[in-house]
Amino acid sequence: MTARGQDIVLGVLFAGLGLAAAWQAMGYRGASGTYPLVLGLGLATLGLLLALRSLWSGARVPRPLVDHPRHVAVTVVVGAGYLALVPVLGFYAASALVALVLPAALGFRRPVFALLAAAGFMVVVWLVFTGLLAKPLPTGFWSRW
Amino acid sequence: MELLTQIAGSVLSLGSVAAMLGASLLGVLIGALPGLNPVMAIALLLPLTYSMEPLIALGMVAGIYNGSMYGGAIPAILMRIPGTPAAIATTFDGFPMTQRGEAARALKIACWSSAIGGTASALALMTIGPLLARATLHFGPAEYFWIAMFGMASIGVLVGDDALKGLMAAVLGLLLGTVGLDNLSGIPRFTFGEPWLLSGLDLIVILVGLYALPPVIALAEQADLKGLSAAALKLGRARLGWAEIRGMVPTWMRSSFIGIGVGILPGAGGNIAAFLSYSAAKSASKDPDSFGKGNPQGVAAAECGNNADNAASMIPALALGIPGNVVAALVLGALLIHGLQPGPQLFHQNPALVGGFMAQMLITSLLILLVGGAAATRVFAQVQRLPGVLLVPMILVLMAVGVYVINGRVVDLWVMFAAGLAGYLLEKLSFPLAPVVLGLILGPMAEQSVRRALLISRGDATELLTRPISAVIAVATLGLILWPLLRAFQRRRRAAARD
């Protein structure tokens, strides 16, 4: 999509977001609603201005949103999977897993190096968060053991 | 005198010194890794500082900031890859010096110049900051409201390439700042029945997402599988003679002034200070043609300029609550999480804390000479042998752990992730993120100020404009918003006249 097309979509999205916020704010009593109402209308106006400006004089040049779609997709999917696994496996197990899986998924083919780096990193995380700062981190199903 | 003793006692305590030293080392390490930047590092650090003493937390912020601004020079000089955006100008002469076999000398000049620029900047913060705070002591709610609006408008208009998108980002930030219980009436807003939203969107969760995830995705896109070879990072020995140091004094003085001036201006950053300092050094040189071909004065100007921006950007942040750049916005965030409201009152209610932080900015500038010395630089250069793909999951884990420990909620991890993905896409669409953060920080203050002003005036909105100072700031804010429109209009007229 061209920069012009992207900016039109962005402007319309923000105008919609602003209008939705203003609509929601109308339900709040008194001054509690006035401030977000004004902001919502302001955002809608600026969004419309952006869409109109792009429609009128936007640059018709390609602007890629992602340079390497495969790498971005892998990182986002593995990252989301990691967050989903944290409550199940616990922080340390899920973190060790992502530290091994993500480099491999991005093409890193030196398993011993990756394993040593992941182990060293996890020791540092454990020392800092559990040893030094004494922060309780979820342990997932390991807590049953 | 009593205050000075108190400040010295707290800043030179074991915890504070350890925090400054450790964070300075970490800062140089982060700056030396291309792809990582001080904003990201401080955003990752903030969640960990919740339970710390404020001065220890701020000492760490100061150390990381000053350290990473020097660290950015290491890959800029050795590989022509700026470790931070502010080190771009350092590559111009730093890398040609490396090609001539003078890498160690260039790094030494960068180290001294960074320390001198940072020290000058900290001294400016210590002198100008309290004066500005005293001048604004008599501000009422109307003035505070307009100061918040001025800060929003300046960051919105001056940061990024597109003023309209900057203003949209600012309004979005202000709107996000209204999520949660209304402080004055207790009415929940935009919470959609979710109890975790009642306390509003957590600033640090959003900050970590917005500023740490986009660089992580960018690192993954590069998919660096090898890192640098040891041979590429071999450094010789170098000594700077007194004659050479004396020759750099005018450059250091000029660059310090430029960096401080740029730092005070909201919206301008270290990269602008470095470019302006570099240009000024080139203009003042008797041999301008040697710039870009390995002139040590070029390295000195760029590094001194970008470090002179550091503490100066805290002047409007601490005195007015308006951050000069994103790091200053993060410092405001650090103050807020410790229950301290930035602005003129901060200087009067917590003089020991503000004085202590200013002293920490000074000490961490000088610490660069210690942690950025020849031996340390050799060690830090080695981190560039680590393949970039290994850093991707490590930063992801640090983000997740840091965010989780704030409230102990898994939902925060998803908020952080969503904010990060949105930030990544918005940056690609040339949508600046700094105004969003500033809106989140200044939004509650702006709303409370305007509502208090209207309560005092019994609903008379003209009160916001009829007080002399508030009227001046309001006109300045309006001028700032209209300025890009006027420029566009002028450009169009000139183009029409040419045709």
UniProtKB/TrEMBL annotation, chain A:
The keyword Repressor does not apply. The chain crosses the membrane at residues 37-56, 76-106, 112-134. Keywords: Membrane, Transmembrane, Transmembrane helix. Residues 9-138 form the DUF1468 domain. This is Tripartite tricarboxylate transporter TctB family protein.
Automatic annotation (TrEMBL), chain B:
Pfam families: TctA (PF01970). The keyword Transport does not apply. The chain crosses the membrane at residues 12-33, 39-65, 112-132, 144-160, 166-184, 196-220, 257-278, 317-337, 357-376, 388-407, 413-443, 464-486. It comes from the Bacteria. Keywords: Membrane, Transmembrane, Transmembrane helix. Residues 18-438 form the DUF112 domain. This is C4-dicarboxylate ABC transporter permease. It comes from Pararhodobacter marinus.
